[in-house]
């Protein structure tokens, strides 16, 4: 069998020429074996019908195997010549023939350096696409967080609106002014509470000294 991979032929036919020849060889060989079995069966029937025949079936089998070996040796020689002719003249694409799907390479030829540059550029674009996809995911996550914060702020604004309406209903005036006064009063109460705590500590210390 030929050791040439014949890649271009495999691209055109959809199979390697060597594979085709191997299948043809196996088919012929199987047919040869089957034919010899049929011949052996006919010989056994013919000899069985001859009175006084002393040829045993085992001897016939040896003769059949010997004849089969003889035929196989000649068949291999003939098939080798047939394979050479078929691979060169039938299953071979000439060097000057270009397949239709490869004609674009003839119109737009590229050197190895140009092809490598395209490969590098393609790899960079793929990396950029992956980076942009990650960035898009991060932006989507941030957008979801902003939606949650916006919803919480809307709840707080609704709460403030409700408090302002309550203040208006009870004549408390502007809610913002009331809230500012409330904040100032709360701060004053905190200062008074700190002052009371400090005086209480001093009194406790005085009681311990007494």
From TrEMBL:
Broad class of the protein's primary localization: nucleus
GO cellular component: MIS12/MIND type complex; nucleus
One of the GO biological process terms: kinetochore assembly
Localization (cell): Chromosome, Centromere, Kinetochore
Coiled coil: 108-206
Lineage: superkingdom: Eukaryota
Family of the protein in this entry: Belongs to the mis12 family.
Entries under PANTHER family matching the protein: PROTEIN MIS12 HOMOLOG
Protein name: Protein MIS12 homolog
Originating organism: Rhodinocichla rosea
Gene giving rise to this polypeptide: Mis12
